[in-house]
Amino acid sequence: MFKKILIANRGEIACRVIKTARKLGITTVAVYSDADREALHVKMADEAVHIGPPPSNQSYIVIDKILAAIRQTGADAVHPGYGFLSENAHFAEALMAEGVAFIGPPTVAIEAMGDKITSKKIAASAGVSTVPGHMGLIEDADEAVRIASEIGYPVMIKASAGGGGKGMRIAWNDAAAREGFQSSRNEAKSSFGDDRIFIEKFVIQPRHIEIQVLGDQHGNLIYLGERECSIQRRNQKVIEEAPSPFLDAATRKAMGEQAVALAQAVGYFSAGTVEFIVDGQKNFYFLEMNTRLQVEHPVTELITGIDLVEEMIRVATGEKLRITQNDVKLTGWAIESRLYAEDPYRNFLPSIGRLTRYRPPVEGTRDDGTVVRNDTGVFEGGEISMYYDPMIAKLCTWAPGEGAPARAAAVKAMARALDDFEVEGIGHNLPFLSAVMEHPRFRAGALTTAFIAEEYPDGFAGVAPSEDDARRLAVVAALIDLQVQRRNAQISGTLTNHERPVAADRVVTLAGFAFPVHVGQEANGIVAQFEGGASLAVASDWLPGQQHAQFAVDGAPMGVKTLRSGTGWRLRWRGMDVVAHVRSPRVAELARLMPAKLPPDTSKLLLCPMPGVVTSIAVSEGEQVEAGQALATVEAMKMENVLRAERRGTVARIAAAAGASLAVDELIMEFE
Q1: How many angstroms from the chain centroid is the CA of residue 556?
Q2: Element (H, E) at 635
């Protein structure tokens, strides 16, 4: 067994590797940039080495700096995590030259599978189903348009060395193919240092399903079931689950055997993932092979009971696999939600800043037998930087059983866990994740990679509460108000020796609803009597100052985030974000007469939607632009974002130049 492992990565995956290494009694070494000096993975590791400035191309992906850290600490093995140098064959070769073990596959497999064009040719030769497309390199936008037309729209334009959703565009016509080619090329060069592009047919209504493979250096290869990763946004996975609600046993076996055949064709060992696109008739096509640990590996670990990081370490030492294909059993159902630092209310644009509050749900087994797991690399008070991937954490839940009941239990457990996850200080996608868990189509397992685009075509604007949900939130607000009123009355009574009474008749307004209620006190809660005779009982241990608490409404649990908002209370639950006001009937009557405050008019301004760098300005002052025309491009967290005109107009003034670093809502240009 290795004595000391250096983790050539950062964030949650570095923390994840450290946990397993610690379990095996192996000393760990972290590397860090200036931006990560106080990062969690640095605090967790036994040793830490500084490797340079924040940009990854000056620190985390500079091979010489990693090698220097290895020499400085005497590490005898390196785990690359995912991203950065994890699929860099030159890095693996450099480690071999140093006599240091690479905890990953052989370089020949990395090279073969790292190039999407080569990998598809190998897959076809190995008898693996492949998507129709042009596997040759494409020189310019004109050639891209010609090839796309020959294949037939829609097509997927992809970076040959790409991954993680970067360098990918879908084109539905010639104009989109031309623009998509250039954007994909720019992203690929920026992210991977390789701007080669290819084009393949885009499968309509596809599901993204992948097979986890595991092999040793003695020729043993197995597959560990599948993961469904169809809930994606901009080709970036958001929610994953294992197993897939779509596959049957026969299709799972066929996909697994093809994945193993491909791995055997390149002499693969260690953990790896073979990704497929699956259509509505369960026809599947090879997409790519990731020669590394996958981001969503925890769901496979939860349904198989296998620690993939441990197996990677053991394989790298030369051990044989401890299990055969017949030993692989898929038990229960697991869901993973990726918590991103991005604002769903601003079309999921990246968000940076300090985590003023970060309280994940309690990990472990719950009373109902479900399990909560949270893989993270941040902490309360830490900073989310603009230099790296915006993922904050991977929240996972597992439920026992099989089939639809197990999946339903895992989804329910995830919804509760998301309710209990507190994040403040930055924009984040917790409300969106909660909304997906409650979505009827998701609950039915009717997934495609177009789910987000189809169900949220105009972006995510939060979840509007139904009348029943509004009533439940109303009684939560009524209980909170009663607690505050009682405390105020007690303080007043202490000062004046006379405790004033608390009114029982209230009006709760929220999200366009107004509920007159009569509040009756009970032992540890209240009963709210609504007009018409309906009533709801609510109990809680909430106290003034708490930002999250558990409420039981007619016995049903609700984890609600609570925060003062002016004279009301901001309540967040299941993707709903409302401000509730609890008033006396007279004050409520007067409040209805107050005019609504209108937001400022920004219709003639182009504001920067996220912190980032302006890479180009596509128009000039005095130019007339049309709706949909590209105005500027802003790069944030290695993703290019093209900003377009919402309507026809004339550019009056350009306030920002290419190369400028802008904050959220900083002015780029204004129109007449």
Answers
A1: 29
A2: strand 630-636
Would you call 150 a catalytic residue per the annotation? no
User: What is 467-591's CATH topology?
Assistant: Glycoprotein, Type 4 Pilin (3.30.700)
Question: What whole-number distance in Å separates Cα of residue 373 and Cα of residue 410?
Answer: 12
Judged by DSSP in three states, 472 sits in helix
> What amino acid occupies position 222?
I
CATH architecture of 132-201: 2-Layer Sandwich (3.30)
In CATH terms, 207-455 corresponds, of 3.30.470.20, 3.20.20.70, 3.30.1360.170, 3.40.640.10, to 3.30.470.20
Q: What is the C-alpha to C-alpha distance for residues 592 and 597, in angstroms, rounded to an integer?
A: 13
Place of tokens 């891209």: 144
**Whole-number pLDDT of residue 523:** 76
Please state the pTM of the whole predicted model: 0.85
Count other C-beta atoms under 10 Å from residue 324's C-beta.
Answer: 9
Which member of 200, 210, 241, 288 is catalytic?
288
Residues comprising the chain, all counted: 672
φ/ψ of residue 177, rounded to 5: -65, -40
Q: Where are the domains of the chain?
A: 4-103, 132-201, 207-455, 467-591, 605-671
| CA 544 distance to own-chain centroid | 32
Would you state the CATH architecture of domain 4-103? 3-Layer(aba) Sandwich (3.40)
By the 8 A CB rule, do 485 and 556 touch? no
What region does 353 belong to: left with phi over 0, alpha with psi -120 to 50, or beta?
left
What are the φ and ψ backbone dihedral angles of 12, each rounded to 5 degrees? -65, -35
Residue 378 pLDDT level (bands cut at 50, 70, 90):
very high
Reference 390, options 358, 344, 343, 350; nearest CA is 350
513's tokens: 């609803």
CATH of domain 605-671: 2.40.50.100
Question: Distance (Å, rounded) from C-alpha 239 to C-alpha 394?
Answer: 9
**Please, is 642 exposed, middle or buried when counting C-beta atoms within 10 Å of its C-beta (0-12, 13-18, 19+)?**
middle
Q: Which residues does 613 contact at the CB level (< 8 Å), separation at least 6?
A: 634, 635, 636, 659, 660, 661, 662
Question: E strand or H helix at 181, and its extent?
Answer: helix 174-192
Domains 4-103 and 605-671 share a fold: no
- Please, what is the average pLDDT of the chain? 93
What is d(CA 663, CA 646) in angstroms, rounded to the nearest whole number? 21
Sheet holding 47-52, edge to edge: 47-52, 27-33, 4-7, 77-79, 101-102
Q: Tokens 């944030």 — which residue?
A: 636
DSSP for 195-206, written as a single string = --EEEEEPPSS-
In the predicted structure, residue 636 carries a pLDDT above the cut 80: no
* Cα radius of gyration rounded to whole Å, the chain: 27
Longest distance between any two alpha carbons in the chain, whole Å:
89
Cis, peptide link before residue 154, omega less than 30° from 0: yes
Looking at residue 369, its pLDDT comes to 97
